[in-house]
Amino acid sequence: MSAARLEFEGLVGGYGDVVVVRGASGAVAAGEVLCVIGRNGVGKSTLLKMLFGQLPCREGSVRLEGRAIDGVEASARRALGISYCPQERPVFDDLSVRDNLTLMRADRGLRAFAPLFARFPILERRLEQHAGTLSGGEKKILSFARGLAEAQPLLLLDEPSEGVQWENIVHMAALIEAAKGAGTALVVVEQNLAFAELIADRYLVMEQGRVALEGRRDEIDRERLLAHLHV
Ligand SMILES: Nc1ncnc2c1ncn2[C@@H]1O[C@H](COP(=O)(O)OP(=O)(O)OP(=O)(O)O)[C@@H](O)[C@H]1O
Ligand SMILES: [Mg+2]
Questions:
Q1: Residue 185's closest CA among 78, 80, 81, 56?
Q2: How far apart are the C-alpha atoms of 188 and 204, rounded to whole Å?
Q3: Residue ranges of the domains in the chain?
Q4: Which of 4, 80, 124, 155 is surrounded by the most beta carbons within 10 Å?
């Protein structure tokens, strides 16, 4: 693999006294997607929060372009080039769709969203509506659009396809492909293996807070992935 855009090693962390992530290491390069998969509750979202700095790491290190960012808080990581679309509460319900899209943009404009509106016309139709009135899947699309349009070097997506119909999942995959072409690195937590198979360059399979399997997609066959996903 070429020099990693993001590298993390030996990450340990959790909530209060409870340790959830028990030693996770991995890496992703520019133009690559690392798909994090695993059963419910194994710590996928917790790992992503640690990569974004929303949750502190008790042990281990995170490097962005070779630079240690341990101890850098989430807002500062954002300024360093990391965008994050969370699994839960992905949008600001009380704000309009427009404000969700433009709130963090210096230009406050919609020009960057043209390719996203072409794929997801519902966003443009509902611009003035409160995001809270959208369905769960529509909120995920809104969050995905906001994150992708930030066009940062690293994008962290936590279950972007949750509740999204297949036709729109395919649109997400096409947009991710374009972002990869532009050199974005992505870490994508996914339960939907069909979607993961459309986008993954590498897999990181978690089991009980640890990495059970990690490697390029051609090194890991489907049966092994399925064996880790099903009880
Ligand atoms: N805010 C929190 N406070 C305390 N425990 C939490 C919190 N968030 C998650 N946990 C616990 O941490 C463990 C891992 O949760 P996490 O959300 O990382 O799993 P996940 O792999 O993302 O699961 P899912 O596939 O359901 O999204 C679970 O046992 C969960 O109950
Ligand atoms: Mg999760």
A1: 81
A2: 10
A3: 4-88+147-229
A4: 155
Question: How distant, in Å, are the alpha carbons of 9, 95, 118, 147, 167 from that of 172?
Answer: 29, 23, 12, 12, 9
Ligand 1 centroid to residue 120 C-alpha, Å: 30
Question: Ligand 1 mean position to 10 CA, how many Å?
Answer: 19
| Inter-helix orientation angle 136-149/166-181, to 10° | 10
DSSP character at residue 90: -
Is residue 190 classed exposed, middle or buried when 0-12, 13-18 and 19+ CB atoms within 10 A define those classes?
A: buried
Ligand 1 contacts CB of residue 44 (under 6 A): yes
CA dihedral 35, 39, 42, 44 (to 10 degrees): 30
126-179: pLDDT as tens digits = 999 999 999 999 999 999 999 999 999 999 999 999 999 999 999 999 999 999
Distance, CA 209 to ligand 2 centroid (Å)? 12
pTM for this prediction:
0.96
Domain 4-88+147-229: which topology?
Rossmann fold (3.40.50)
Position 228 scores a pLDDT of: 86
Confirm or reject: Cβ of 209 under 6 Å from ligand 1. Answer: no
Q: Sheet holding 59-64: strands in order across?
A: 18-29, 4-15, 59-64, 67-68
Q: Is the CB of 46 under 6 A from ligand 1?
A: yes
Ligand closest to the CA atom of residue 39: 1
Closest ligand 1 atom to 49 CA: 18
Helix (H, G, I), strand (E, B) or coil at 184: coil
